[in-house]
Specification:
The protein has 453 residues and is mostly beta strands. The protein contains two helices and 22 strands. The protein has helices spanning 7-22, 26-30, and strands at residues 33-47, 60-73, 81-94, 125-137, 140-147, 150-151, 154-155, 165-173, 179-190, 217-227, 230-239, 243-256, 259-272, 288-289, 298-299, 302-314, 317-327, 360-369, 378-390, 397-409, 419-429, 439-451. The protein has an 18-stranded antiparallel barrel. Strands 6-7 form a two-stranded antiparallel ribbon. A two-stranded antiparallel sheet has the order 14-15. A hairpin with a 2-residue loop joins β16 (302-314) and β17. It is globular and about 65 Å long. The model is unreliable at 17-23 and 101-110 (pLDDT under 50).
């Protein structure tokens, strides 16, 4: 584990790259960009039930840290084929001097935001460096190295101090008007609270002495802008030895009175692949989590997920209603290395993502931009969702969550862009506490991005 800050080292490396490139092509240097993002993050989670489970999931989780993310993006060399390089340096420093996320004898759980030491305490700091080589021909760009994908079938998680990154290759083409094509392969992931590169897995196979993983997640897809207000999407993802996943999406905006009505429809179809297709017993090594009858909670990937979110925005108000249904024996499968993961679902909110086997979820959301009242930069929002018909050995179960967010970004002056966010969430369920506990959670975030180039 690296024990010294990388910000200076990454800055020097980026400067050297720019100087070398300057002798070959002005575009490499002239189009370069660099930013330093700072994030101060306080996290407090209170598990509300089942004290006997505290040995594995303690009642109180509390961490406070400062994150630094230096992001350098070069331009491309001039000519038919342009070459460039990107670099990202990340540093996290623990600020909770009492070590609340620390010892195995404490009532709090380490590892939420920081890696763990051998004695199960959180480290004082952690850092990592990533680089990406890139090449561009016309409107087609090839990238190899560190990636932060934002695709329907693979989403980099940015819910803590530092973002999750992947290693792999990706090509994106915009040579055809109104069509964006994307393809590539992810091979490993560095989780948001780690400096290690882990291979890829899913819930059900990603922990314990029998954990199984894969080093190939292949993907291909496209976004087609039919009109300026209508976009269609199709993506296919395959995690070797685990699952194949098809995605269809539609987004549409239409003026309605003085406001805008938006429709967001999504459909996933996921089936087992490779060794997972033989996961027909409870002890299957490549099994997915879910419910398969007769008390079995692991088996072959088998999931269809449908969702629709409809929002109306007018005069600073945004009101939304959504519904999502998951069908099949398994939970919804997604890249998950047990270090925090995101899904491209309308129900993936602060604590839970509501994608269990058989689950039907209703959602209501509301937000307001106080700029309409003269308080520019101030926004607030609330989301409530409830999921029913979760399939378990004890019968159908339910869960619900309420999230509240208040955010203020300084709109002008010397501190323009400095942001303050409070996120509060309450989660309740009648699922067995050994699989999911009730939670009350608060996050306080101060963020600022400083342009360097």
């Amino acid at each position: 584990m690296v024990k010294k800050p990388l910000v200076v080292a990454v800055s020097a490396a980026c400067l050297n790259l720019s100087l070398v490139a300057a002798s070959h092509a002005a575009g490499f240097v002239e189009d370069s960009k660099a930013t330093l993002s700072l994030r101060n993050f306080y996290y407090n989670n209170d598990n509300r039930n089942e004290a006997s489970y505290a040995a594995r999931n303690p009642s109180k989780v509390e961490e406070w840290g400062q994150g630094f993310l230096l992001n350098y993006q070069s331009g491309f060399t001039q000519g038919t084929v342009g070459f460039g390089v990107d670099a990202i340096g990340m540093l996290g420093i623990r600020l909770d001097g009492k070590g609340h996320a620390g010892r195995a004898t404490n009532s709090t759980q380490p590892g939420t935001m920081f890696p763990r030491e051998t004695d199960n305490s959180s480290v004082d700091e952690f850092s990592s460096l990533g680089a990406t080589a890139k090449m561009k021909i016309s409107e087609t760009e090839f990238r190899y190295g560190t990636l932060l994908p934002k695709l329907p079938i693979a989403v980099s998680n940015d819910g803590r101090l530092l973002p999750q990154t992947y290693q792999g290759a990706q090509v994106t083409s915009k040579d055809i008007k109104d069509l964006t094509l994307t393809a590539g392969q992810l091979q490993s992931a560095k989780n948001r609270n780690s400096t290690d590169q882990d291979q890829l897995s899913i819930a059900g196979s990603n922990s314990g002495s029998t954990a199984r993983d894969s080093n190939k997640f292949n993907f291909v897809g496209g976004d087609y802008k039919v009109t300026k207000d209508l976009t269609l999407q199709y993506y296919f993802g395959q995690l070797e030895d685990f699952y194949n996943q098809h995605f269809l999406g539609l987004t549409h905006n239409v003026k309605l009175g003085d406001g805008t009505f938006k429709t967001d429809l999504r459909y996933f179809n996921s089936k087992g692949n490779g060794d997972n297709k033989d996961a027909d017993t409870q002890g299957a090594l490549y099994g997915a989590s879910g419910y398969y009858g007769a008390g079995r909670t692991r088996g072959e990937v088998d999931n269809r997920l449908y969702s629709g979110l409809f929002t109306y925005s007018i005069y600073g108000h945004t009101l939304g209603l959504g519904y999502q249904s998951t069908n099949g024996k398994s939970n919804f499968p997604y890249l998950n290395e047990a270090g925090g993961a995101s899904t491209y679902t309308i129900t993936d909110i602060q604590i839970a993502n509501f994608t269990r086997s058989g689950e039907d979820t209703w959602q209501a959301r509301y937000s307001y931009d106080f700029g309409q009242l003269g308080a520019k930069g101030l926004t607030a929002g609330v989301i409530y969702q409830r999921g029913d018909n979760i399939r378990t050995a004890a019968g159908d179960s339910m869960e619900w969550e309420r999230d509240l967010t208040v955010s203020y970004v300084i709109p002008e002056g010397q501190l323009k862009g400095l942001g303050f966010t409070w996120r509060n969430a309450m989660y309740r369920t009648d699922l067995p506490a050994a699989s999911q506990r009730d939670q009350d959670e608060n996050r306080l975030i101060v963020s600022y991005t400083l342009p360097l180039l």
